[in-house]
Amino acid sequence: MYIFKPIEDVSELSKHFSGCVNGGYIGFEGDEIIGKCSLYVDGHIVTVKTIDFDKDKPDIGEGLMRAALNFGANRNAYYAYCSCENAVEIMKLMGFEENDGIYSGDIPTLLGGSCGCCRQNMI
Question: What does the alpha-carbon distance between residue 29 and residue 105 come to, in Å, rounded to a whole number?
């Protein structure tokens, strides 16, 4: 079972991520770290800064992305942005729209419906 744990503590964030971030998630399978993502919430916008996962396990990447969007939504963010090249397929499946390499969408729509894997199988 995958577990995605949030990180908000500044000292803990700096151990795992660099740059300007005020939130993050670490994915676990048992005690093993299976992925990480960092984000920045500013008002009604959450920006997913980094997302790291095994490319052969896109469900982990989608779980991290959904966790990040939920983190933002719980802090009054309504809109999300991400330009992580390794997550393009996940973002497309979730319904992000692309403009000049930056993917965006409103969080309720992005989190609505089924997971990307299920949507992909319906196409």
Answer: 29
Q: What is the pTM of this model?
A: 0.89
Q: Residue 106 sits in which domain range? A: 2-122
The structure tokens listed for 119 are 């949507």
CATH of residue 50: 3.40.630.30
DSSP 74: T
CB 52 within 8 A of CB 35: yes
Mode of pairing for the β-strands spanning 45-53 and 79-82: parallel
Half-sphere exposure of 49 (CA within 13 A, CB side): 16
Nearest alpha carbon to residue 103 among 120, 85, 115, 77? 85
Question: What is the tally of structural domains in the chain?
Answer: 1
The overall average pLDDT reported for the chain is 91
Cα 22 to Cα 4, 17, 58, 68, 121: the distances in Å are 16, 10, 24, 11, 35
pLDDT, tens digit (0-9, with 9 covering 90-100), for 7-63: 988 888 988 898 889 999 999 999 999 999 999 999 999 999 999 999 999 999 999
